Amino acid sequence: MLNEIITVYAITDDLLKAIGHHDDCRRNMSDAEIMTTALIAAMFFYGNHSKACCYMKEHNLIPNMLDKSRFNRRLHGISMLINDLFHQIGMILKETSDCTEYLLDSFPVPMCDNIRIFNVKLIKSEDYRGYIASKKRYFYGVRVQLLTTKSGIPVEFVFMPGSANDSRALNALPLNLPPGSEVYGDSAYTDYTAEDDLKITSQINLKVMRKKNSQRQDEPWNHYIKQHTRHYIETIFSAITYLFPKSIHAVTFDGFLLKIEAFIFAFTLKQAFI
User: What is the pLDDT of residue 274?
Assistant: First the structure.
């Protein structure tokens, strides 16, 4: 675990310096240390910040560890910075990758079990009531739209309400990919206008599975390639959700999203650098 902690801290600290981020000299704990603790919590402690803070302090990795309340306030204060760093790493991975094939899909993250939907207090909106077709059940939470490399390393993500159709992700995700890239997705991403726009403006080929009544049917060999290529992302979802606890504890909706972001960030670092 020590090697992973050192690696995570080195990466985050170097990235913060690279983008010109400076800590307040009056602070006892740097933003890199805050970020490292949150990522280690996601990587080894199922997102439990208290356990991660205790571990880092007891092993003298961060002697000036803040108490739980101050740590959470500092962590929420740099939430946008964490998001920026993730996408910076995503850009590095996209620029250094030899492969131009990417996988796009979504997975649900419920805030609570289906029977407790009416009691949830983090957020109240019918937009967050979605349906999981594979499990044939409803859930209340968010959908994570995730773009990964062909080898399964996340490079872009965005949170959508649970009821949002997957095709909306084509407008929500940056899709900042090299020209000539190919993005594989299932039939839920069918949007001919977005498909044509991506090809004309960004030279990105959106290769989605075609429905039976699709106006643009594929040849059998092309259908097989799409189906064979995109299935690997399901394994990635299983690996990411393996880091999740049985129930993600959060007091606010922003805190809920921040923990999910930390899980994805930690998984990316582990796959790409550790």
Answer: 82
Cα separation, 45 vs 185, whole angstroms = 32
DSSP 8-state code for residue 247:
S
| pLDDT tens for each residue of 142-193 | 999 999 999 999 999 999 999 999 988 888 999 999 999 999 999 889 889 9
Task: Dig out the tokens for 202 from the structure.
Answer: 């960004």
The low-confidence residues of the chain, meaning pLDDT below 70, are none
Q: Which amino acid is at 120?
A: V
How big is the CA angle at 95 (ends 94 and 96), to the nearest 5 degrees? 95
Strand-strand pairing, 182-185 and 137-149: unpaired
Report yes or no: 184 and 207 within 8 Å, Cβ to Cβ: yes
User: Which domains can be identified in the chain, with CATH numbers?
Assistant: 1-91 (no CATH), 99-243 (3.30.420)
Left, alpha or beta for 207 (phi > 0: left; psi -120 to 50: alpha)?
beta
Number of helices (H), then strands (E), belonging to the chain: the values are 10, 6
Give backbone dihedrals phi and psi of 7, rounded to 5 degrees, phi first. Answer: -65, -45
Rounded distance between C-alpha atoms, residue 194 and residue 202, angstroms: 11
For position 86, what pLDDT does the model report?
96
Q: Which of the 8 DSSP states describes residue 252?
A: S
Under DSSP, is residue 187 helix (H, G, I), strand (E, B) or coil? helix
Report the alpha-carbon distance of residue 148 to residue 268 in Å, rounded. 9
pTM above 0.85, yes or no: yes
Provide the token pair at 83. 């998001």
- Token couple for 271: 């796959």
In which element (H, E) is residue 11 found? helix 2-18
Q: How far is 184 from 138, CA to CA, in rounded Å? A: 26
